[in-house]
Specification:
This protein has a domain of 87 residues: Serine Threonine Protein Phosphatase 5, Tetratricopeptide repeat (Alpha Horseshoe). Helices cover 69% and strands 0% of the residues. It contains 7 helices and no strands.
Amino acid sequence: MAVGDDDNAATWLRKSFERDRSNHKTSGALVDLYFRQKSFARVAELYPRISIDAETTEPTILEIAESLEKGQDLKKAAQVLEVAVQVKGPSAALYLKLASYYRRLGDSRKADELERKSQALGASPSS
């Protein structure tokens, strides 16, 4: 998709999303498009209407969490990742991001635990 087509694509993706909010490809594409445009508030606005489940892709989950973080809602960003880990299962990337959020929220014990889980799944400590 050409950069100049982003606005047009956003319009069509939004219409498609409104017709069928359960379509993970559409919601993921819309989140990704807004995220690439640095429209973090738009991603955060979509979040309550997107269900995080086993079919939601990890990049979509991380983009939602990061958008909430950039909107200064670190607790909600952590909640998104907690839900994702529960429904999708263990993930080094999700654990690492969640650990960074807990550390910033002042819960270093939880952050350390999540970092250990991430490392057990093969993530390097510096990722």
